[in-house]
TrEMBL record:
GO terms for molecular function: hydrolase activity, acting on carbon-nitrogen (but not peptide) bonds, in linear amides. InterPro entries: GlcNAc_PI_deacetylase-related (IPR003737), LmbE-like_dom_sf (IPR024078). Coiled coil: none annotated. Gene3D superfamilies: LmbE-like. This is LmbE family protein. It comes from Acetobacter ascendens.
Amino acid sequence: MKVQHIIEHFYALPIASFNKIAPGTSLILAPHSDDESLGCAGLIATAVQHGRPPVVLIVSDGSASHPGSHAWSPERLALCRQEESRNAATALGLPADRLLFLGLRDAAVPTAGTVFENSVQYLYFLINQHNCRNVFVPWRHDPHCDHVAVWSMGQRLKALQPELRILSYPVWGLTLPSEMDIEEALPTGWRLNIEGFLSYKRNAIQEYRSQRGLVVEDDPNGFVLPEHLLEKMLQPYEIFITS
């Protein structure tokens, strides 16, 4: 099916209440520091307002965004990304103890093997520790290997605990070429109205200064969040896919 048809369908998904989309406690899995704010900031802020702050886990260390920098080693960049994540969480009202870091290597999150299985077992522990009923993962067609790997973790968790609700949020998938064909039927899901928290979301994204070209000065080819992605993310609703 053409990407254009799927994206148009996303934008036409029904608006649903927060309680319908995410009953109980949620675990939000972000491949990188910033994905949780790009895809789920409104959901996070809404959950906090409802007295059910989610557990947010950043899976990778975010160290691969500026490989040409000499001043910013991968280790230094990873620490910066963690600090930015904490600042973003504060902007959304998320308690500090609800933000966790798995620390897998950026651009190398596995989809199988020992590290993958150990990661899934840790996530399974978190789900049971916090009595999570919902797990949010990236959309399977987001064009980044780490996003696909985290989606795979969600599928593995579902196999371990079938009663879990696995929902996907698109990020980079919304930027795929409209004429591209992907193997996907029209998805089901909902949109969450986040108009009241849009300023919170904008503030959280702005905390990722290293991703907006405002920190690393010696890597002109380093990653910068593109405006066309931010435009798609800063809408008065967020998209959550159930199939």
